[in-house]
Amino acid sequence: MVGMKKKKGYLLLKYIIYIGLLLFLVFPLYWIVSTAFRTDKEIFNSSLSLIPQSFTIAHFQDAFIKVDLLKCLTNSLVITCITVAISILTGLLMSYAFARKNFRGKRFLNSTILLTQFIPMIAYIIPLYLIMSKLKMLNTFSSLWITYLGIAFPIAVVLLINYINDVPVSLEEAACIDGCSNFKVMFYVVFPLAMPGIISTAIFIFITIWQEYLVAVSFISNEKLYTVSMALAKFQGPHGTDWGGIMAGAVLISIPAVVLFLCSRKMFTDNLAGGVKG
Fold first, then answer.
1. CB within 10 Å: which end of the chain, N or C, has fewer?
2. Under CATH, what is the fold of the domain 67-234?
3. 18 vs 12: CA distance, rounded Å
4. What is the dihedral of CA 116, 120, 125, 131, to 10 degrees?
């Protein structure tokens, strides 16, 4: 009887913790979305309620008209897609070499790539700014995606090595016996089986680059080249902060990342199911 009470108490405590964590994660999202649809009068009201008492889409209109958020979304989408595509392709080749090949300096190179993840981006900003200035690449998309590759490539390598290691070597050996070249083994055997990991890595890199601010604000001053993170900063001015505009902008710039996740979730589960069946 005592054991049953302890078990029920443990389950109750566990559910309370789970609910608390869920509220901790979901409440900020709810607050962002609800504030985006509130009027300025209600937002700055000292007795702000959890449930909106008013409704407006004016903040979303301001995001597109005053800030030209559509242009910023396009800029970020182009830069992010270029970064993801190149970093995944090169990261796959490098991670395959680390996972399957032995060569001189492998451990040192692997450690160096891993070490870059522990150095904050702000430590690179001044040297990178000087380099881009010398090359006359400031206020260009190239300055962003080249720098972002330096961020994304190590992430891709570190994450993809584990997924490639999960692919049985026996499958590669069987493909080689059947006459496949190293190129065909990689692209027709290893990479398809590692597709769930590739998709997860691509999504992680996409979100990382999509929300990046420090590099963008350091290299770009031309408003026509602003990214989405810089667009949100335009809602802050000398006369105050447009919280409704910031929240509306935050909702809008989150849509591409959410859509990407929802579209790739089925592919992710299908690949997992295919791997289990195989």
1. N
2. MetI-like fold (1.10.3720)
3. 10
4. -10
